[in-house]
Amino acid sequence: MKILIIGATRGIGMRLLEQALDKGHTVTALVRKPERLKKIDEKFKVIKGDILDRISVEVAVEGQDAICCSIGIGTTRKPVTVFSDGMKNVLSSMKVHGIRKLITVTGVGAGDSRNHGGFLYDKIFNPFFLKTIYEDKDREESLIKASEVDWVIVRPGFLTNGLVTGEYRLITDMTGVKAGKISRADVAHFILEQLVNPTYLRKTPLLTY
């Protein structure tokens, strides 16, 4: 499978890049700073660009079988639009090139996962440091849900640098749920499985141990 990863220089995107190449997939990474990624495999290609630049997104999307978007930004209280504006470029580029498969990472606090992170996260950290980020992630999710692509929106719990285990919970009914930890490697494991066999098509699973 030919996979485009937007957000591959760190975190979940980097773990996905490693696992996808290990499984023999062909991977393209759209990154702002190509020097952060070394050419580690003949099936790996780096394209310099930005999710906010429609032209570079179109170039990267062309010829792919699936798109994974796992971009992130630091904590801020300023207005945020990168997630929704970037997704507009991704979706329009997918339409231009006739590509349907999309997996996007948002997180606990988006959509109906809001108020399922525990007291400190829900009442202090999210509203004071992540409010504008998750407002934009909500806009991003709405754009995806309104599109015609075959999507999965992945909402990880609290991220760790642990190893891949392949053993985690996938929750779509948030009733009575409190998110726990999940490794970036296990999030990447789930994404790769869904790229190959999307059993959570048009769903928003929470990943947690």
Describe this structure in words.
There is one protein chain. This protein is of the alpha/beta class and 209 residues long. The chain has one domain: NAD(P)-binding Rossmann-like Domain (Rossmann fold, 3-Layer(aba) Sandwich). Helix content is 37%, strand content 21%. It is built from 5 helices and 10 strands; from the N terminus they run βαββαβαβαββββαβ. The protein has an 8-stranded mixed beta sheet with strand order 3-2-1-4-5-6-10-8, with helices on both faces. The longest helix has 28 residues.
Q: What is the residue-averaged pLDDT?
A: 96
Give a short account of the largest sheet: 8 strands, mixed
Count of DSSP H/I helices: 5
Low-confidence stretches: none
What is the straight-line distance between the termini?
Answer: 28 Å
